[in-house]
NAD-dependent succinate-semialdehyde dehydrogenase
Amino acid sequence: MTMHYSNLKREAAYINGAWVTADDGAVMAVINPADGKLIANVPDLGVASARAAIDAANVAFASWKHTTASARAALLRRWHGLIVEHVDELARLLTLEQGKPLREAKGEVLSAASFFEWYAEEAKRTYGENIPSNSPRTRLLTIKQPIGVVAAITPWNFPISMIARKAAPAIAAGCTIVIKPAEDTPLCALALAALAEEAGIPAGVINVVTTARPVDVGRELCTHPVVRKVSFTGSTPVGKVILGLAAQTVKKASMELGGNAPFIVFDDADLESAVAGALVSKYRNAGQTCICTNRIYVQSGLYERFVARYKQEVEKLRLGAGSDDSTDIGPLINDSAVAKIDGLVRQALEQGAVLNSGGHPALQGPRFYQPTLLTDVDESMEIAHAELFGPVSTVFRFDSEEEVIARANATPYGLAAYVYSRDIGRVWRVSEGLEFGMVGVNEGMISNELTPFGGVKESGLGREGSRHGIDDYLELKYICMGGI
């Protein structure tokens, strides 16, 4: 299948309503992970350009914050409509630079669009409150105001939806935003900016800084005093660095960080449902999702049957370029991702895990890895504690409810967890006992714009999506009126 793209493929960054290049002419290559071919060259901007974007956002904020909620909502709805109108083009561009199957890419684009629609509606619901006064001479109330300039640092695994989760509530709240997309996937961010421009969003309200110098540019975004909030999606180690930088000027910070999701299957679970749920949770986007299943815990009475049935389904998965309609699993994002996952698999096998399927780099190309199934895994192995980010399933055996809750919680991460059981009492007990921000019960796909997305412990701070997702872009101001 030949990939086609049109005017949404931009090879310039977007600052203050203009398409710009680097002052020194520096560019960075965007590579198709499926075949290693060059897709585009985009500007490699430095710190000075990041400052220019921040300044533009700050100037725009002075007027943008005074626009009405209904006016901002109208622009967001227009942006949403343009994304839906260009869904096929955006999906092809996403697959081209990120690698995921085209049908998954299309699903991501539509998911991203839903956040713009949702926050167009929530823009009009940022209510304050009247507070019963403690004195007849005063009146007490609160209002919510936009926090200011927002810096958004986004990852490569969902290069459209992760921007939507941040830009939509920020703009709905009356903030302006500077986006630094991942080096591997800048084209999706630039395409969204092109549609924002077409929707009529004013110059400076949204800015996109492309760079191959993420440390320098990221430091500027996180320490510049004008930036009042940082929203980051990525690894926990990088998130800790960003939190430290943001603390220097006491910025509000939202962190959606790493995960180590347990997928717990009890003896009384519906076997076919559990297998299907584990499969979609684990192998979506080649396992490169922060909420994908990392550890599959199966109760002893169902263990052998689950493994046999799951293996059958894993071996049906087809590797290939995301542009091929028959592909289930595309490439990993880069060579180091393949080396990491292969190293973890090799180490687990040396430590006693059993290889049931896959276990090697694939013949389709240097960035492909076989869908892999390891059994007899336990917590003494490094693979039990790593965020895999690859198409590898690890299956653990357990006996009791109390045991599996303790083992599932024995991680510094707390993003997502999954439970399969037909016992409603057990479902409640386990869901409440798991130390995770999100729990899927008899369901492997749990994310949408209606619900709060985020974790606990070292998996993050704050929530994206739902009515709660706009809160981190607002300041709550208390007003005491005397002399009444």
DSSP finds 13 helices and 20 strands in the chain.
